[in-house]
Amino acid sequence: MLVDEIWVGDRRVSELPAEVAQDEIVVIGSGGTLMAVRPLARTDLGSQAPIRLVEIAGDLVLEIYNYLGPQKAFWEMEWPGAFYKGQPQCGFYLEAAERSEYSDGASFAAAVKRGVLKDITDDPFVYRGEKERLWSIEYSRDGETLGLEVDLMEWQLKRRWTQDGAVGWPMLFSPVARETMNGEVTVGNAILNCGKAAAWLFASPETKLWAAAYHGLAAAPVTLTVPDGKVEIEEMGMGTIVWDDGVVNIEAIDLKGTPIVTGGRLAVSDQLNIGGQK
User: What is the dihedral of CA 170, 27, 107, 24, to 10 degrees?
Assistant: First the structure.
């Protein structure tokens, strides 16, 4: 990426490496884009672990360390273990903007700093594999909000939200693949009909390859229709269907009945054992 300007807060950076304070905002200008990075709460496992901008193999890198020093054992990082306090925190807030919207990187840094950042972590405790320790981050500005919460003990995402409420998982969407949760997925001339749960369909007409997957928690009727034929399944649970130039492979749980293939044939392995059922 071509870097035109670098700012740390209100100062322009012309030489690297450059030190960055915990509460400072880094702004990079490249072409018509400005990008701002705001470090979040960080677990310092040593003494004064640095944040700094450096150049590595021609790339601009923002290093955010949890530890920098001689080799040591991190007892508080090991589970099971009596000293375990959860995974180390090391994150950032990133925002991009049109370069034309701001006079320079410093003005964009000031706008990002004007927002309200809530960065809250539960106190550490002796872990017995039961209680959560939550890290909750929320950033708000000009009526818009973005939030994230994770459990540091199990390192699991707990929730995400915006000013409009909880955010679900985004659906796959591209020229060659689609994902829906309404029971039907269409890509070009191919259609997947299934239960009203997450399902996706990939289509490559040039190679005569179509792949579909159903992710419903309960078994449902599934039909894959492609330009040269069709696969009809009385019921199947989570699994995949692949149509490869007329040869059909099916891998699924809770398969009911024998799949009906029109215009193609089941692969030999599927004829003997489909989804674990003979």
Answer: 100
SS3 263: coil
Residues 6+ apart with CB under 8 A from 251: 239, 240, 275
Indicate the domain borders of the chain. Answer: 5-166, 177-272
For residue range 59-111, what is the model confidence (pLDDT) as tens digits? 999 999 999 988 888 888 788 888 888 999 999 999 999 999 999 999 999 99
Residue the block writes with tokens 């007892």: 75
Helices (H) and strands (E) in the chain, counts: 2, 24
Residue with tokens 């995974």: 87
Residue 208, helix vs strand vs coil: coil
Overall pTM surpassing 0.70 (yes/no): no
Beta bridge partners of 241: 212, 250
Contacts of 2 (CB under 8 A, 6+ apart): 30, 31
